[in-house]
Amino acid sequence: MDVNNIVSSYMKLRGLTSLFRFLGGSSLLFDWLLSFILDLSSIHTSHSL
């Protein structure tokens, strides 16, 4: 597992979170995005096992 990839993904997530807060974005959209990212990460970890 590439640590740099994880860090960059985390920083992108932080950036998206701050952007949504700045825009006062829909919490529903953020919840969907978060669950989508969590689904991707769980798929990634299951493949790496």
Write the layout of secondary structure elements.
Elements: H1 3-23, H2 27-48
What does this structure look like?
With 49 residues, the chain is an all-alpha fold. It is built from 2 helices and no strands. The longest helix is centred in the C-terminal third of the chain and has 22 residues.
Residues in helices, as a percent range: over 70%
Radius of gyration: 12 Å
Classify the beta-strand content into a percent band.
under 5%
Oligomer: single chain
Q: Summarize the biggest pleated sheet.
A: none
How many discrete domains?
1
Distance between the termini: 10 Å
Give me the count of strands.
0
Order of helices and strands: HH
By helix and strand content, what is the structural category?
mainly alpha
Q: Characterize the overall form.
A: flat
Low-confidence stretches: none
Key features of this structure:
49 residues, mainly alpha, flat, transmembrane, membrane, transmembrane helix
In short:
With 49 residues, the protein is mainly alpha-helical. The chain is 88% helix and 0% strand.
